Amino acid sequence: MKRWLPLLIVLVCVGLGLLFNSDRGPRLVVLDVGQGDALYVRTPAGQDLLIDAGPGRQVIAELERELPAGDRTLEAIFATHMDADHIGGFEAVLQEFKVLHVFTNGQQPTTKKGHAFIDAVNTQGIELQELSRGQRLTSTDFTMDVLWPDDSERVSSNEGALVMRLVTAEKSFLLMADAPDSVEKKLIELQTQLRSDVLKVGHHGSKTSTTGALLTAVQPGQAVISAGKNNQYGHPTNEVLDRLTGAGIEVLRTDQQGSITLPFNASPKNWFENIFGST
Ligand SMILES: [Zn+2]
Which of 28, 105, 115, 127 is least enclosed, having the fewest CB within 10 Å? Predict the structure, then answer.
């Protein structure tokens, strides 16, 4: 019995940790914000990231469901590009949460919602940082590589959208924002490391993204599509759904399933830390 006592104590502690800690662990959640994109990431170190904020205020309730109780801080927010279905919710996010870092693709706002977002960043006195290909953000068991835009290609809208690859101890995620086939082609030509376990499908499943060549390069097991129920654009298109299922990839859709949670494990040493929590 004595030999097993230390193990027993550890198991009891782990159990209590799980019971009393509201942190649901490292994960990427494709939030259901209707027609648009908003991705929440809880890193292994307990940071909260938001990549895009959907078209409006609905992101607030989604975030409140995800953040641990009492945590109102987002360590970083990312605007992949200035289209309203991606940045429309940021003004409300900046009003409701404390945001430490703001990253964009370097594009200037072109719409009312875009200007409201940038005004809110300036009002809060947060420095706005532009990301481009080759930059890397790291944290414990978590790396985020910026694959696009290329500095020389800071063009407007979807062609200049931030494409990022998250690498964790267990899984990798390729986040295509609204990047079209021309960007996919350039990423492949530049011999970018694209292979990932999960693909966040580009441009809500529009037929001008997610080419067969991209799927060959990424080889994902799962694909997630963010689109609004019965949206006016016909997203996701049958062409893209056929390409995905034809390649044997499991398809997850916010218009059918609501928010989609994709958990990933930290390495064993951090798994212990995570259970006992950091905020
Ligand atoms: Zn979009």
Answer: 127
